[in-house]
């Protein structure tokens, strides 16, 4: 029986991985459940009010499908050689079906996660990719399944016999394998920091925009706490937040039975 997909959260120490994990429903210190939002079939048949899925949840025709996330041990340049928590990183990574690279886009932590100012976070994307590629080239490719190898060779339209592969061909195969085995989304975290905008602009010019997501893990954690305490109406992962006054303005005289937010929470 196939297992549920596992998404690995990767990134250097202090990038915000643990806070990102805690913004989801945690199972243990390293694992959590996130939710992929898709259109539910009930909406096509106007049955949203009767939809009660056994797997995940449905809110107004939007289905929340649970996906497990794993906080992969923090790594530093040289992890494939065992530096930092390199060995733990490799052990965790091999279980993942896809990756979310959490990048500290504020530039307030260096490559090893130490506090600084003015660091270029685009470098984190480069060296983390390099670490994964070098690890695969040195270890994983000899253990990978035949189907994954076949897809990589098809991707490159490579017919040349293995014994004739040049160093350039090997590098191309490893990069294709990395893309096939570990499709990656880059989560630009800490966008609430004043230095984030310039770094986001630079990275957006270097990377495929479809792979970039802007995040503020600490803001998500805060929103969930406010919702749990009854101050706001907020569905995990939603783009919308409603306060008591918002609901009153929309015609709900009770304001959804939410608590009134004090001045400290509204500023």
Radius of gyration: 22 Å
What structural category characterises the helix and strand content?
alpha/beta
What is the β-strand count? 10
Separate helix tally: 9
Low-confidence stretches: none
Name the helix and strand elements from N-terminus to C-terminus, one letter apiece: EHEEEEHEHHHEHEHEEHH
> How is the biggest beta sheet arranged?
8 strands, mixed
- Indicate the proportion of strand residues: 15-25%
Identify the overall geometry: globular
Helical content class = 25-40%
Q: How far apart are the termini?
A: 51 Å
Mean pLDDT across all amino acids: 84
Looking at this protein, list some descriptive labels.
single chain; alpha/beta; 8-stranded mixed β-sheet; two-stranded antiparallel sheet; 10 strands
Please provide a brief summary of the model.
By secondary structure, the chain is an alpha/beta fold.
Report what the structure shows:
Strands 1, 2, 3, 4, 5, 6, 7 and 8 form an eight-stranded mixed β-sheet that branches. Strands 9-10 form a two-stranded antiparallel sheet. It is globular. The chain has helices at residues 17-22, 86-93, 122-138, 146-156, 167-181, 196-206, 217-228, 244-249, 263-266, and strands at residues 6-10, 25-28, 31-39, 57-59, 62-71, 98-104, 184-189, 212-214, 232-233, 242-243. It has 267 residues and is an alpha/beta fold. β9 (232-233) and β10 form a beta hairpin. The model has no long low-confidence stretch (mean pLDDT 84). It is built from nine helices and ten strands. Helices cover 34% and strands 19% of the residues.
């Amino acid at each position: 029986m196939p297992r549920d997909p596992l998404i690995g959260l990767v990134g250097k120490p202090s990038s915000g991985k643990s806070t990102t994990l805690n913004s989801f429903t945690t199972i243990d210190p390293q694992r959590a459940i996130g939710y992929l939002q898709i259109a539910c079939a009930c909406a096509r048949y106007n049955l949203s009010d009767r939809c009660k899925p056994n797997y995940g949840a449905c809110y107004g025709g939007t289905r929340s499908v649970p996906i497990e996330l794993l906080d992969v041990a923090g790594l530093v340049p040289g992890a494939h050689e065992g530096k930092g928590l390199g060995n733990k990183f490799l052990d965790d990574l091999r279980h993942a079906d896809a990756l979310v690279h959490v990048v500290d886009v504020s530039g307030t932590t260096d490559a090893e996660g130490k506090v600084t100012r003015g660091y270029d976070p685009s470098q984190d994307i480069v060296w983390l990719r390099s670490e994964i590629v070098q690890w695969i080239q040195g270890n994983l490719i000899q253990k990978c399944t035949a189907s994954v190898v076949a897809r990589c060779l098809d991707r490159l339209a490579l017919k040349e016999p293995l014994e004739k592969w040049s160093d350039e061909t090997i590098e191309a195969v490893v990069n294709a394998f990395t893309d096939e085995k570990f499709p990656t989304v880059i989560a630009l975290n800490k966008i609430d920091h004043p230095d984030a905008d310039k770094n986001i602009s630079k990275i957006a010019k270097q990377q495929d925009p479809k792979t970039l997501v802007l995040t503020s893990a600490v803001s998500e954690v805060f929103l969930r706490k406010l919702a749990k305490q009854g101050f706001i109406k907020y569905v995990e992962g939603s783009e919308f937040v409603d306060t008591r006054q918002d609901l009153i303005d929309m015609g709900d005289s009770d304001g959804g039975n939410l608590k009134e937010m004090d001045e400290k929470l509204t500023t």
